[in-house]
Q: What sequence folds into this?
């Protein structure tokens, strides 16, 4: 995050005189406390400053790169996951192709009547399914999908860094996010390379 000139001045004051109250900072800059409030909030939320009641603000000692790394390491899957695109294992290969095209995704998750994950269908799976002599309008995706235990999943409270490493290690496009409900793993979301890229862009901005 790039700081503006006033925020840079605030950091300099806190480095030299911290802990220091917001009123004292405003006094040194010849500004009102209300004027500085947004800047102090940004610096605190970004990790540059910390604040203690009746004590004031003090510098955390973190450089911009450290702040970004710290924030990234604390992001959870549930903070950035997308809605899953679901089909049943009885869905035909043709219907799955149409679904993938309309939803503009690279992976579909096949579930049973309890919403439990039973399979994953990728673009590559569908391509293989269309190369045979079978009738794709009648052939179910259960014939071509990847089944457990060959499916890699993650949980909402997993660190995003864990999910990112799984995508890299397994060389896959997405991970289904599952939650344990009544003894079964129910699909509640997905983590994709796009989700992770968006996080990096937002942090940089």
A:
């Amino acid at each position: 995050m790039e700081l503006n000139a006033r925020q840079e001045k605030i950091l300099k004051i806190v480095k030299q005189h911290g802990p220091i109250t917001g009123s004292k900072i405003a006094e040194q800059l010849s500004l009102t406390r209300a004027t500085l409030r947004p800047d102090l909030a940004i610096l605190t939320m970004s990790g540059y400053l910390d604040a203690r009641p009746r004590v004031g603000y003090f510098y955390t000692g973190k450089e911009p790169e450290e702040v970004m790394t710290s924030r990234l390491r604390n992001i959870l899957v549930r903070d950035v996951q997308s809605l899953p695109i679901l089909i049943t294992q009885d869905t035909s290969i043709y219907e799955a192709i149409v679904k993938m095209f309309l939803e503009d995704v690279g992976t579909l998750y096949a579930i049973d009547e309890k919403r439990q994950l039973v399979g994953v269908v990728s673009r590559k799976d569908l391509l293989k399914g269309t190369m045979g002599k079978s009738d794709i309008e009648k052939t179910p995706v259960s014939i071509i999908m990847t089944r457990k235990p060959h499916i890699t999943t993650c949980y909402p409270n997993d660190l995003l860094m864990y999910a990112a490493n799984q995508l890299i290690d397994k060389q896959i496009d997405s991970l289904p996010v599952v939650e344990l409900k009544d003894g079964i793993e129910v699909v509640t979301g997905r983590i994709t390379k796009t989700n992770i890229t968006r996080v990096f862009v937002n942090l940089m901005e």
User: Anything to note?
Assistant: The CA atoms of residues 125 and 144 lie 6 Å apart. The chain has two domains: 5-62, 77-204.
